[in-house]
Amino acid sequence: MNAEYLKCNPVFWSRLGFCYDPPLKNEEGKPLVFTENFEKYVKHHIDFLSRDVKIHTCILHLGWMGVNEYDYSLTDRVLESVFSAGDDVLFIPRIKLNVPIDWCRENPEDVFVYYGGPQTREEIASMVGTDKQDYFGYDATNGYYRSGDYVDKRANVGGMIARQSFSSEKWLVDAGEALTRLVDRLEFGKYADRIIGYHLAYGISGETVTWGRINKRYGDYGINNRRAFFDYGLKKYGSLQALREAWCQPELTIESLCVPTPEQRTGKADTLTCFMRGSREDAICIDYDEFVSETNASALEYFAKIVKNKTQKLVGAFYGYSLYIDNAAYSGHLALERLLHSHYVDFFASPKAYARSGIGEPGGEICPAQSINLSKLFVDELDNRTYLAVENESDIKDGLVASCYSDSAWVMWRELAKDISHDSGFWWMDLGGGWFDSPDLMSLVSRMVHVNDLLRCQKHESISDMLIVFDERSMMFTRESKDLHKGFLREFINEANLSGVLLDVYRASDLHTLDLTGYRLIVFAQNFYVDDKTRDIIASLPDEVTVAFSYAAGAWGEGGFDLSLSEKLTGHRIISNFNADLYDFPMIKGEPIGDTKRILITEPYMKSSEIRAMAKRAGCQIYTEANDAVIYGDNRFLGVFSRGKGGSVKLKERDSYLDLISGTIYEDTDEIPLPNGKTSAMILVRQH
Predict the structure, then answer these.
(1) 626, 644, 631, 645: which is closest to 684 by C-alpha?
(2) φ, ψ for residue 219 (rounded to 5)?
(3) Across the chain, which distance is largest between two alpha carbons, in Å?
(4) Closest CA to 123 of 115, 137, 113
(5) Which pLDDT score, from 0 to 100, does residue 393 have?
């Protein structure tokens, strides 16, 4: 099976085998699993298989219980259970590679340490297994998140150490040995032919995210991580003297090196230069961010290579969260370009975007899905709560959970349209253990599988008029800022998806090979670093293309930080206007230089109506002016998802159209009304 097969065929994920990480033993001395009722989860797999969803996935226990200790009893139980669902089941195990607790005690130099935490080998070792150790990478007052029948009595709050450092060579060797043992066991086992790939996982929730990201705790101030960072800097600059000069530390040694403090890395900036890390003293912070991502990518490649050397099956991981989280640099998720060229990684995944994911909202992605799909495959984890997932009323109010079947269906259709239009794969996730356990939802799954098959038979081509460009590297060249990232990138994409315009989102590095001729409006939404080649591409854009830039685009170039670089790129003079109380970044104003046609966006959080007006002026096709309608589509279909405020859909050409969801045929028309007073979901194709 190849990536094309995975892209075209929906996947189902269940809580089967959901177990404690780090591994703990139950009363019988076996690996602790949260729910012993495997039959319940097998039923869900049987239900999805009966709806022609053949690829299945869940957590498969690594078997690594402690230093030189292995137990595959839970591993084998999960395998037997998932394959008992039917002879047509194909399996992609998710394998967590985090270390057991006693590994930390034996290897304290390789333990991840938070800021202000212990510094000596003895101090670190003394905290292992105590309430000073953060097991999960986030605070959890009630213990493990969604633990099931097992109740965790240990509050996981305020730990000073976590588990393995991502820079630990000892972790790579030991976890690599555990992975090798498991892959051998699977590939020489009776289900080898039905295992089509491997999903590698480590860090917080197995998402290759460094410890502390969620609560914005800061590390890694551990012993061997400091040494690894020193070695990284030495290799980058070529000599100790050059490193001392680059990091403004004339007496620097491997013993005296300190990882930059949280204040240095993220503290509030009073000037634009300070915020954009434009001073010499900021070089060490930029280098540390780069080091974290390169280290994370190296770890992922190391494990992926182990699997590829054993089998040529698909290998993937969660990675590339630069579209959604403002601390992707801290998380180690900015080395996507490197991994997209890796021979060992075939697919990338992430949970769906959690904010604005409910009824009437655009949904979205955490990763740059379209960029990934140019050379690899993005697989979307659709962690959308159906009406069966209600735990409390606030979940419905916050849009996290659908309140009824029709709302669930609306969201599921929207996510299907999004993923097909972006040429992505996806899996339906049942994190609660029963989110789809009803005849109406399973019937819906059947219909969606049919529509998915119908549309995937045709080759995907973009017909978008609008292009949003961002550069993930730019996140290393500013201090961490929620408003900057959310306001100019994440929310801009959300509002653009409500503007009635079809749009694409790509990384700046894609511009070197991307065909730009179809775009009428190109928005550079997060491009504070712009290399010379990209500047040349922007300069060569024809006059009929409207080009817009956000904030101080291009202030960083290959020669360093210089505001005049931004002014030359954007055609606007940058004027500082520091309003420290409004946003968490310094505000700017822009004055046009000459008669420039380029647009400079200096205010974050543009609304869909403003984006639509800009798109209209650029000559983009406006499919609907209803501010509550989400638009996704490509050459194969147009998906329109309305909250029920009326309006209409204006199509490019007059023809007869079929709505694949309702079966309604619209004869000889180029305009279709949207219902007033009730939500609607349409996937329109030409009627042949």
Answers:
(1) 631
(2) -145, -175
(3) 78
(4) 113
(5) 56
CB 383 within 8 A of CB 429: yes
Query: Cβ distance 554 to 527 under 8 Å?
Result: yes
Ordered by where they begin, the domains of the chain are 3-216+289-351 (3.20.20), 458-688 (3.40.50.880)
The angle subtended at Cα 332 by Cα 329 and Cα 333, nearest 5°, is: 80
Query: Six-digit token pair at 674?
Result: 């949207």
DSSP 492: H
Question: Please, are residues 116 and 160 in contact by the beta-carbon 8 Å criterion?
Answer: yes
pLDDT score of 216: 85
Sorted by sequence, the CB contacts under 8 Å of residue 595 that are 6+ apart come out as: none
Per-residue burial over 530-545, b = 16 or more CB atoms within 10 Å of its CB, e = otherwise: bbeebbebbeeeeeeb
CA angle 489–494–499, rounded 5-degree value: 115
In one-letter notation, the amino acid at residue 257 is L
Distance CA 426, CA 5 (A): 12
pLDDT value at residue 126: 98
- Which amino acid, one-letter code, is at 536? D
Q: Which residues contact 173 (CB under 8 A, 6 or more apart)?
A: none
Both tokens of residue 337? 């370009």
Tokens for 646? 């009326």
Residue 265's nearest CA partner among 274, 255, 253, 256 is 274
CA distances (Å), origin 384, targets 352, 388, 400, 408, 417: 8, 11, 8, 8, 14
Spans of the chain below 70 pLDDT: 145-147, 390-399, 578-580
Q: What is the pLDDT of residue 395?
A: 59
CA dist list (Å): 575 to 567, 589, 604? 10, 5, 16
338-371 b/e (C-beta count within 10 Å ≥ 16 → b): ebbebebbbbbbbbbbbbbbbbbbbbbbbbbbbb
Query: What amino acid is encoded at 394 in this protein?
Result: S
Please give the pLDDT value at position 296.
Answer: 98
| Token reading at 340 | 């997209």
